[in-house]
Automatic annotation (TrEMBL):
Membrane-spanning parts: 197-213, 220-240, 246-268, 289-314, 320-345, 378-396, 624-646, 652-674, 695-716, 722-747
Alphabetized InterPro entries for the sequence: MMPL_dom (IPR004869), Mycobact_MmpL (IPR050545)
Source organism of this protein record: Bremerella volcania
Gene Ontology annotations for the cellular component aspect, listed alphabetically: plasma membrane
Keyword Oxidoreductase applies: no
Residues of the signal peptide: none
Domain Membrane transport protein MMPL positions: 129-353
Membrane topology: Multi-pass membrane protein
The keyword Transmembrane belongs to this UniProt entry's keyword annotation: yes
Gene3D superfamilies for this protein: Multidrug efflux transporter AcrB transmembrane domain (1.20.1640.10)
Protein name (record): MMPL family protein
Length: 759
């Protein structure tokens, strides 16, 4: 094997040239890697929530709404200056490509009523739209902006929301809210985090390596290995047609972990052979021959563990499993191509890494660790079992974070906007109910809808607003009746009112009452709901279920009445199931969607990694011993989350499967070192001491370098990124303890036994 690597080193300049050419090509190809910003793709295609969402969008032409607000004390000034300003802002917004229509009170249909302080209709309209187009005090304007479906516009949501935000930034106290805004901001921060993690983390890791080993060459090698692997991975993803998503910022973290850990193992093993008197070329060949198998199997187990995510039904998570597997397997080729040329280029005297700071004390501490394990195995095992039990109890108490605003820092514009809107206007969470309707609206049907709305207001007090076309029609008909010198038939008033709405608000009318393009005979009526976005998951889910229950009860009653009407020869509405949908509903269940398959994928990752390590070690017992110290830290971290009351967000949703693939690398190096030391003539106890010193140091330096590197994520504005950085750091710290205490303890108890003399 060593001869093979000597020939490999002889080709170092050719390999380096090939590597540079491949990287240049990868940078070019990687530019085609796109970003999937669709929140809908975060759900499985067969998920009833997404099916209802897509059906609703098909019927009403989309349900994405941005709410823009600004301050104006003269909103309802009798001279009309406030509404003139509303009209000017509305006109500016509706001129944007991607905006379907803006709901406001400046229209001819409503303007005269709301400006007349003596008008009963005006008072009713202002009360009706309070919390939707203005606040109750009448000094804050709110403009619900309905967006054109993505399939019908060429302007991206990022560009459109930027344009809308620019308009409101120019208004007094102007700001925008809405689920589309949160989603765009979330993806923006994720992209920024990906860039930050790609370079800032690598530089910080390199600085730690430079500080510890005091060698610029090896610092550069660490940066090159990580960045080259990332560029190759991005190129592979672009060629395959895969897209990055909200969960893909972790890809950089994974590649960084594997790449840095591999380089640190090379540093320490290379230094060991140099201390034994070998020349740089020979030392590099010896280190490569020693590390090839454990590095290969570490990358392979990472890839197998990440591939467990392929069983998930959520597209971005499924694709992320492929991305991580590709990234893990490309670390070894990057090392093999670039390492010999970079290590041996230039003067040989600057190739040797220095002894790490505190090396003697670290060696002493690792020796004491082994002695403690040998002397007190039973006590340690009891403590481990106790920690395992407490972790399971804590994991059972985990709760999900459904308030999407909690994914952002309190200082971000979107959180400040939501806080302002929900304090001044009520709820900012927008969602809808769609119920079957007749082909032609009747006064009787309008009354039925209002009865349903009254039930929703009464039985679901968490709703801050319930509004529909029925309320507008009722208010306008009441005003018309009062103005008319004689009593007009209801159907005549309905026809006139609907005609005016169709003339002045055509898009709004189509978005409130429409037929299904796939079933033209089915007509649907939309009821708009508002509720607070900033509330806990349980309250949100209970609110959604309460609305479904009330609507289902109404539907069942209408079905019974329809059967009677059909028997009497009367026309009835179609029997389609009511729809409860909207981004508020999707975002409430987003984390549930992400974590639904995670425990299954975690179990599959354990099984796959177990099989892979059995092949690597040629021992089922050793494979099982390697799994235990890596499963426990994951359970302890998730258990601590449950015990301390922290909620699971996107950053924590997939931590189990991801961490399982990362932590096991150290176990592979540890057991390989143990087996090779025995093969080299040491007794099992001596081998345990030797591997604790050699592999133990590499694991410690790599872990603390990575924790330092991931600290850069704590400056993110996207809270899941912060969680992910902290959780990966904690899990790796736990894996460090597991591999330096639990693993040698298990080897002592189950492999060496008590018969061999202690060292």
């Amino acid at each position: 094997m060593k001869k093979l690597f000597e020939r490999w080193i002889a080709l170092r300049w050719l390999l380096l040239a090939v590597g540079i050419a491949l990287t240049v090509g990868a940078v070019y190809l990687g530019q085609g890697l796109s970003f999937d910003r669709s929140i809908e793709n975060m759900f499985a295609a067969e998920d009833p929530l997404i099916q209802s969402h897509e059906r609703f969008n098909r019927i009403f032409g989309g349900n994405e709404v941005i709410l823009g607000v600004y301050k104006d004390d003269q909103l309802f000034a009798v001279d009309g200056t406030g509404l003139d300003k509303v009209r000017a802002v509305r006109t500016q917004i509706e001129a944007l490509d991607g905006v379907k229509e803006v709901l406001s009170l400046d229209r001819k249909l409503t303007r005269g009523f709301v400006l007349d302080p003596e008008s009963d209709a005006g008072i009713k309209l202002k009360e009706l739209f309070a919390g939707y187009t203005h606040n109750r005090d009448g000094n804050i304007v709110a403009l619900p902006i309905q967006l054109t479906p993505k399939s019908e516009t060429t302007v991206s949501r990022v560009e459109l929301i930027g344009q809308v935000r620019a308009i409101f930034d120019g208004l007094p106290g102007g700001m925008i809210t809405g689920e589309p805004v949160m989603v765009v901001d979330g993806f923006k921060y994720v992209e920024e985090d990906g860039d930050r993690l790609g370079w800032a983390t690598s530089l910080l890791l390199a600085a730690v390596i430079l500080l510890v080993f005091r060698n610029i060459r090896w610092m550069i090698i660490a940066i090159v290995v990580v960045q080259v692997t990332l560029q190759w991975t991005h190129a592979a993803l672009a060629v395959s047609g895969l897209q990055l998503s909200m969960v893909s910022s972790m890809l950089t973290a994974i590649v960084t972990v594997i790449g840095v850990a591999t380089v640190v193992h090379y540093i320490l093993r290379f230094r060991q052979y140099r201390d034994e008197g070998q020349e740089p070329k020979e030392a590099l060949a010896s280190a490569s021959a020693y590390l090839l198998a454990p590095v290969f199997w570490a990358c392979a187990t990472d890839a197998v563990g990440f591939s467990a995510l392929l069983i998930t039904s959520v597209g971005p998570v499924h694709d992320f499993g492929i991305m991580m597997a590709v990234g893990a397997m490309l670390v070894l080729p990057a090392v093999l191509v670039f390492l010999p040329g970079l290590v041996l280029a230039g003067s040989p005297w600057i190739v040797d890494p220095a002894s790490p700071w505190g090396d003697a004390k670290l060696s002493s501490g690792l020796s004491r660790t082994i002695n403690s394990i040998v002397k007190r195995p039973v006590i340690l095992m009891v403590l481990i079992l106790l920690a395992f039990a407490v972790s399971l109890w804590g994991a059972a108490r985990l709760r999900v974070e459904s308030d999407f605003t909690k994914n952002f820092r309190e200082t971000t514009p979107i959180v400040q906007a939501y806080a302002f809107v929900e304090d001044e206007l009520g709820g900012a969470g927008v969602w809808d109910v769609a119920i079957p309707a007749p082909e032609h609206l009747t006064w009787e049907y309008i009354q039925e809808v209002q009865a349903l709305e009254d039930r929703l207001r009464t039985e679901v007090p968490e709703l801050s607003k319930v509004l529909s076309l029925a309320d507008v029609v009722s208010a306008m008909m009441e005003a018309a009746e009062k103005k008319s010198p004689f009593r007009l038939p209801k159907y005549s008033l309905m026809r006139v009112g609907m005609g005016l709405l169709r003339d002045q608000l055509p898009e709004t009318l189509n978005s409130l009452y429409s037929n299904d393009p796939e079933n033209p005979d089915e007509y649907w009526f939309r009821i708009m709901l508002l509720s607070k976005e900033r509330q806990d998951a349980q309250t949100k889910q209970e609110t959604i279920e309460a609305v479904r229950r009330v609507v289902a009860d109404f539907y069942a009653q209408k079905q019974a009445e329809a059967k009677v009407a059909e028997e009497d020869g009367e026309m009835a509405v179609h029997d389609g199931e009511p729809i409860v949908s909207g981004f508020f509903v999707l975002l409430t269940h987003l984390i549930d969607s992400l974590i639904r398959d995670q425990w299954e994928s975690f179990a599959l990752a354990i099984a796959g990694i177990g099989v892979t390590m059995t092949l690597a070690f040629r021992s089922l017992k050793m494979a099982l011993l390697a799994l235990i110290p890596n499963i426990l830290p994951i359970l302890m971290v998730t258990g601590a989350f449950g015990l301390l009351g922290y909620r699971i967000n996107m950053g924590a949703a997939m931590i189990a499967a991801v961490s399982m693939g990362l932590g096991v690398d150290a176990s592979i190096h540890y057991i390989y070192g143990f087996q090779r030391s025995i093969a080299g003539g040491l007794t099992p106890s001596q081998a345990l001491v030797e591997v604790q010193q050699s592999v133990g140091k590499a694991v410690i330096f790599a872990t603390f370098a990575l924790i330092a590197g991931f600290s850069v994520l704590c400056v993110s504005d996207f809270v899941p990124t912060i969680y992910f950085g902290v959780l990966v750091g904690l899990t790796m710290l736990g894996a460090l303890v597991g591999n330096l205490i639990i693993l040698p303890l298990l080897i002592k108890l189950l492999v060496i036994g008590r018969t061999e003399p202690q060292v």
